[in-house]
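Exercise 7. Given the components listed, write out the predicted structure of the assembled complex. Treat all entries as one system.
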Amino acid sequence: MIRLRGVHKAFGEKAVLKGFDLAVPRGGTVALIGASGAGKSVVLKHIVGLLAADQGSVSVDGREVAELDQEALYALRRRVGYVFQFAALFDSMTLAHNVEMGLRRIPGLSRRDIRRRAAECLELVDLGGLGDRYPAEISGGQRKRAGIARAIATRPRYLLYDEPTTGLDPVTTTVIGRLILRLREEIGATGLVVTHDLGTAYEVADSMAFLHDGRVRAHGAPGEIRISADPVVKSFIEGAPELMETIA
Amino acid sequence: MAGKTLDFVGATGRAALRFAATVGEWGVLMQDTIRGLRAVRIWGGLVFEQMMRIGVASVPIALFIAAFTGIVLALQASYTFTGAVPVYLVGSLVGKTMIIELGPVLTGLALAGRVGASIAAELGTMRVTEQIDALETMAYDPAAYLVLPRVLAGAVMFPAVTLLASSLGIVAGWLTAIQLLEMSTPEFVRGLETFFVPFDVVFSVIKSFSFGLTVTSLGCFFGFRTRGGAAGVGRAATSAVVASSMVILVFDAFWAAVLL
Amino acid sequence: MRRNEVWVGVVILLSVVVAVVGSFWLRGYRLTRGTTTVEALFSGVGQLPDGASVKLRGVTIGRVNGIAVEPDGTAVRVGLAINADVQLPADAAVLIAPESMFGDWGAEIVSRSANPRLDFFEPSDPGVLPGFSIPDLSRLTATADEIADNLATITDRVEVAFTQETAENLRLVIENVGRVSEQVAELADAQIGAVEELVDNVRTSTREVEAAAALATRTLGEVERLLSGGVVDSIVGDTRVTAAEFRRLATDLRETTTGLSTTLQYADSTLVRFERIGRELETGEGTLAHLLADSTVAVQTQSVLTQLTLLLEDFRENPGRYVRLSIF
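Answer.
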């Protein structure tokens, strides 16, 4: 499981996380919601060691991320698939090549295995025939799916989604949401979905955490969050800024 | 008044500290890059492509610059050498200057613009679109995957391109001498031979090797630390070119002081 | 990817070939001819660089290949890579001299019998050629300095042994030297103008210096003859003239040239010595007994004068060897 305890992180003067706690149990899917710029992506980057906490503990499968040497950190990253907000596909490579990148770092896989598994992953996200395309030649939704295909290629134990539906039309958003659910069934990965899109969050998560002011303000099943009485949570969920003013 | 003076002193100190910190960050990136040498599997297959992009593709511009430099050197040398100075010294001046100074430095500066900017812009774009983060999450060491192939390619290809450029510069100087200056080929060759020592070529290679490391490592460095979208990418490219050019000139003086 | 590799390979290989072949070519190695290496020993090699040209009768036949001081420090061993198909003279020897006025020194293979008076280094190994490094202008003036020194000693000791005739001869010598010094000054002027003129002037001047030196030689013979004879007048006045002339030589040189600072230093020190002679003559120091106790001085002076004459001959024939400009 992924566990963050009392994590503090500041960029220069600006404190983003101020004692952040979160646990993602094996097999579950947690949605981390919150306003744009609240530091949701920062949380994900701590989990794979792209960022180091100023204070507090981040552990995956019981091992402290900050204490891992490079080999162990790479081993961890192979167990964690990361879906970036704008897909972050390598634009100098075809989609198939993008998906193969992670597989090439796995020892003992033959060239043919790599190619076969990359094709399977693209198939899984319904991009079967597009392996030869370059990222610039496909649509935004297809890019997102290609990013997901790349993240799942190594059959990770954990999947981290950074804003998987941002900037997509409602239909594509639903498609992505269903894809996330399907992937959980097919590869059984534990998921952490960072999003400010409540629809997706309700659809895919079995529990939700609301990030506000560097801390988890509310945590619970989607149903609980939806009816939360906390004015801050309520203001976010109902999209009503005036509720925020009442607590200020 | 005193307050303003203090402001100035403070600003100077701050700038110095920021400069030192930048140099330190560059040092860390270089350290990571050297450590990345072990991961041959990651960078091994990428070096040739970078050699192509950094070296082979730069050959035309380097040759173009060198050819005209050779012509100008020959013309200006003959213009300067009047009266008692024998004309064959035009050959000496063209050869010596092309090999030990203008070949390496002009190639270095041209490639600082061409290669340095393109590396900084490419890696800068990868940084702001999280492609570098993506590499890391796929267990690729970005220093080994992105920096190392470029730095190695620069270290190998800059000297190669420089040698070709210097040679063409001399040939251009020779053609100018015999076509426009009424010199004979043996005269020009005598001048070339008279002051030539093989160490000049070694010196040229050492210089351009250091320029290659400079341009590629600074290009990667400024690309890596890009922040803030398209404007940031532009700033990174500019910084890479400016810093590379300055460091090239500093290295130029340094090698002349140390090795000559 | 395959195409990349080919192109990269082409660029790298081409640059290496250009650098290596170009370097060898510029060092004078041509593929068509084989070379053989001969060695020569010198007491010193002046400014000869490794790779300098080796000539025979004015034709370049090879390159200097390796310059090293002998382990015992008494000589310099120089390797000469020369075309294998060139036949060297039976009594070959090697001369080192500046090739032009621009500091590029070269070696020339000569027949030793054609240069009997040059002081070649004598190698013990018969397979190694004897070598001689032609002194440049500064060494010429150093020799003149030595002559002046010896003259000082002699005049110091023979102040009472001069006849009027000897004094007259000496005065002539000194006047000649004075004239030469003026011409050297003009020569220095001319050097700034044009090389051609310089060479002509040098020729004229050196003839004068030669005549003066010959006269000085005769005078010294006279001095020797007179050593057992009577007492003569002081030559104080004449020596003062000499001193003044040398002073002017030095000043003129300083004013007219910038590149001959070493020469100036020697001229200055010569001047100081002449002045000392004058002072010593005036105060009546030194006696005939000094000279009689050390008659080798006069002999030394004679041999130095002979050397000077030799140098002047060479100077006249090869003025380019003695005047040096360095622009790099």
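Discussion: Residues 21 and 71 of chain A are 27 Å apart (CA to CA). The two ends of chain A are 36 Å apart (CA to CA).
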